[in-house]
Amino acid sequence: MFRRQTALCLTLPALLLAGDAGAVRNPDYLHERPLEVADGVAARPIRHTQHRPTATGAAAWKAFTAQHGQWTGLWDEQTGVPARVWGEGIAVPGASADARVAEAVARRLLREQLDFLAPGTKLEHWQLAANLVHGRGDALRTVSFTQTVDGVPVLGGGVSFLIKRDRVIVLGSSARPGATVTMPARLVDGDAATAAARAWIARAYGATPVVRSLGALIVLPLVRDPVDGAPAIEYRTARVIELDLARPRARWDVYVDAATGAPIARRQTLSFATGTLQYDTPVRHPAGARQSFPAARAAITVGGSPTTTDDAGGYSAGAAGTVTVNATVTGPRVRVTNDGATGATSPLSIADGGTGTWSAPSNELVDAQLTGFIHANRMKSFSLTELNPQLGWLTQQMDVSVNEGGDCNAYSDGDAIHFLVSGGGCENTGRLPDVVYHEFGHSLHHQSVIPGVGDFDSAMSEGISDYLAATTTDDPGMGRGFFAGTDTALRHVDPAGGEYYWPTDISADPHVTGLIIAGALWDVRKAMIAQYGAAEGKRKADDLFYATLRRADDIPTTYPEVLAADDDDGNLANGTPNQCLIDAAFGPHGLVDGSSTFGIGRPTRDGNTIAIAVTAIGTCAAPVLGNVALVWRVAGGNDTAVAMTANGGTFSAVIPTQPDGSVVEYRLVATMGGGAMLRFPDNPAERYYQYYVGPLTPVYCTDFETDPFAAGWTHSATSSSDDWQWGTAAGNVSNGDPDRAASGTSFVGTDLRANGLYSRNSIETLSSPTIDVRGYTGLRVQYKRWLTIEDGFFDEATVLADGEPVWRNFASGDEEGHTHTLDREWREVDLDVDAQALDGSLKIDFRLGSDQGLEFGGWNLDDFCVMAQGTGPVQAVCGNGRVETGEACDDSNVAPDDGCSATCQLETDPPPDEGGCCSTGSDPRGALVLGVAAAAILVRRRRRQA
After folding, report:
1. Rounded to whole angstroms, how far apart are CA atoms 688 and 413?
2. Are strands 677-680 and 49-50 parallel, antiparallel or unpaired?
3. Partner of 735 for a Cys bridge, out of 251, 364, 700, 756, CB 3.0 to 4.6 A?
4. Are 57 and 82 in contact (CB under 8 A)?
5. What 3-state class would DSSP assign to 263?
6. Which of helix, strand or coil describes residue 319?
7. Which contiguous run of DSSP H or E holds residue 672?
8. How far apart (Å, rounded) are the C-alpha atoms in residues 349 and 451?
9. Selection from 527, 526, 503, 501 nearest residue 516 by Cα
10. How many angstroms separate the CA atoms of 179 and 126, rounded?
11. DSSP 332-347
12. Collapsed DSSP state (helix, strand, coil) of residue 836
């Protein structure tokens, strides 16, 4: 916890204005977290999930699967609730068609599974939020509940049940476990509360916002990384005040203490794109092609009589001949305003049966109005036809405000969409159809979420809005022309040479994080088109996109929602019609359980030859690979890429022979037929395999097939539990442990028998016997490892040789670190310990230090060896600084009377003034100084693990 506190102190000034408003790009002035707190102890910026139950939820998960069969789950790392559980289904006859049956079923399941889905809550805390059918053909029904405490809503708390073909196939929870508050005897005066909220914003932004509304009472959960034993969630009773700031443009829900009015937190809510009438607009951007689009649903006057065009821009005139048509940028579905003022109009003379076109390419302000009107209407028409004909918001008039002050941005407020004038090297965003589609996507997301199950996660919304723009233009390069005079894309959802991956590519900028789900959806779209053809493939992909938009509450929960939408029999345990291609698309983005490789085996090595096999898996055919690349380097050198050649179902390549003593590192990149990429090793903290080059002689080896603790190995813990055990795999695969030994049947690891997770607040050590290495040179330790551990900023895995660290897991630089070391296979490890073996003996320690937060499977070790260069012991040479056979010491010289004789034997009475091994010189205070320094180091290390 020392590390967490230190990082907080160092980064707090930046974090106080750190997240975003969900605009088309991150506004430079709005660097806030999704929930910005007032007390300085930062709320978590993003929910992290894992494909296994937390320690607190393991028993409930076991009971659930024992009762209901084969299921898969996704858990919130901090709260421990199952974000999504999906599987073979629970039969609920009549529930798909009958809302009353569905509600009764949902209430029964909520009662039965309350401790599993919402630990620490009571049944009376849950109120029905939605009971509706949705999806193409109304194939899905969602019943959801929202959380309350004493009748007061708990912000974000929900439980849901998805029913398909009379089976419950997905359960979801965003419950806030154990929510409890003391309700204030008297609510704070509204004027005092709004004054405090406005002052908080004014201090941060130098401008005083206006009050839009003073809302009702809520229970506000503050989910944080636990600090010094504090709870992961703190609950506060709050009132919600909506504040709006014109310059700089922003809008917040500010949560103030219900009793005192003091600000608690704020959340940014803006999501920062018979005659015939046509409007001429850019197809993508003003510097590119233009097109005349039908002015659909435009309010016009024809010969002085008001009317509205149809979806093709057609109208009927009251008289024959040429008439004057007064065109506007207003209609029943879209109303364009010019920075809040009335939109432009234009008189056009159109002959009977003819076509009139309003065009203003050289007038930025008018062109933006025409573009906003046309392309917002296009999105409404598409959404009504293809996504959700029942969504009432799509038939209502939406405001599109263009030519607003500022530059380089656009935003959605959840309903209206807003676009800024040109400047700062950026085009007027109202003239960019891509940006109109993107911002419309934010508003569509806001309006489509099913309460109690889905949520408006900013990173997910950025990604699905990018996807909506890309699928509309049929181009993964989103926002072309954003930078004035160019055709460059603002973002690319299908970048060449790589995929955005969860959690490795999580970023403080939600636009970057959003590319993970945007890329996964785009890869599904490509695969669907390849499978079903352009029209049908796009339709299927867009259906899956909209399913995520309605029910997912963050990026990790999109995968089960896509499977549920694709299902055809109410049983997710037996697969779905397109699960093979869905897995192949979502997997390379880290959104499928990482233990799956989708028919691509783990790499194998035979000398310098690296190979990887491709096979069918289950009902899925063997994946088609576009190419497989082997990337290698000598440790510390530059990468060299080699194309691997195929022979049947195996790809292989040879790494050129390197000089003896080299350590070679390598990785593989497999490009699947649809363009998605898999990387091996699949470990965000360690991207290379390794092996040593040259002859080695075994000095000491064990494969752990017999009890190592009877052969001199020891284990201990300085606090909490000692988890080290010897045995066979116990089936804790979901917790990160292996399903088998690296060789034989037995190995050593932390907690092989219980839930597989290492203990909290513990320092645990496995120690080898002291190994005699006299006479050997070039000592190395080699072993096989399956290690899963939290980011090293929090939990430390260390290898020590004679007490000196020679390896430790990757550590991020601050408390936002989520680069966990997560092996998915047995890994070969080679460590140079020659410097530590100079005294003729060697002892290896494997240590694990944990804090009170997230735990994984920890250490698993097999096939341990101490190896030496060459073919055997060398002849002793006194004075070479290495203790060898026949020597008791070797201090690199052959001078007598210094404790080590000229023949490298111990001298019993070295001169007292010559110091000795632990002296710092003739000053007797030196030893005291050294001792104090050593003690300080030990204290510092202990504090880091406390």
Report:
1. 45
2. unpaired
3. 756
4. yes
5. strand
6. coil
7. strand 663-672
8. 49
9. 501
10. 12
11. SSEEEEETTEEPPEEE
12. helix
User: Cα dihedral angle (95, 98, 99, 100), rounded to 10 degrees?
Assistant: -90
How far is the C-alpha of 868 from the C-alpha of 872, rounded, in Å?
A: 8
- For the chain, give every domain's residue range: 604-673, 696-869, 911-946
Name the pTM for this structure. 0.73
Q: Which amino acid is at 415?
A: D
Secondary structure (3-state) at 426: strand
Q: How far is residue 664's CA from residue 640's CA, in Å, rounded to a whole number?
A: 11
DSSP per position, 118-175: STT--GGGEEEEEEEEESGGG-EEEEEEEEEETTEEEEEEEEEEEEETTEEEEEEE--
Whether 788 and 821 have beta carbons less than 8 Å apart is answered as yes
SS3 of residue 21 by DSSP: coil
- Whole-angstrom distance, CA of residue 254 vs CA of residue 239: 8
CB distance 240 to 267 below 8 Å: no
pLDDT value at position 450? 95
Specify the pLDDT at position 596.
Answer: 56
Q: How far apart are CA 816 and CA 35, in angstroms?
A: 15
CA nearest neighbour of 804 among 777, 838, 850, 760: 838
The three-point CA angle 201-205-206 to 5° equals 100
Long-range contacts, stretch 606-611, CB < 8 angstroms, 24+ apart? 608/654, 608/655, 608/656, 608/657, 609/652, 609/653, 609/654, 609/655, 610/644, 610/652, 610/653, 610/654, 610/655, 610/666, 610/668, 611/650, 611/651, 611/652
CA distance 657 to 668: 18
Which tens digits make up the pLDDT trace of 237-273? Answer: 999 999 998 878 888 999 999 999 999 999 888 866 4
> In whole angstroms, what is the distance from residue 565 CA to residue 547 CA?
6
Identify the three-state secondary structure at position 286.
coil
Ramachandran assignment for 69, one of left (phi > 0), alpha (psi -120 to 50 degrees), beta (any other): left
Q: Calculate ∠ Cα 44-49-53, nearest 5°.
A: 125
What's the fold here for domain 696-869?
A: Jelly Rolls (2.60.120)
d(CA 685, CA 698): 30
Render pLDDT for 358-410 as a digit per residue (tens, 0 to 9).
Answer: 999 999 999 999 999 999 999 999 999 999 999 999 999 999 999 999 888 99
The DSSP call for residue 494 is S
What's the first-to-final CA gap in the chain, in angstroms?
6
Give the pLDDT confidence score for residue 918 in this predicted structure.
31
Q: How far apart are CA 835 and CA 743, in angstroms?
A: 30
pLDDT at residue 834 in the model: 95
Spatial separation of the C-alpha atoms in residues 240 and 253, rounded to whole Å: 6
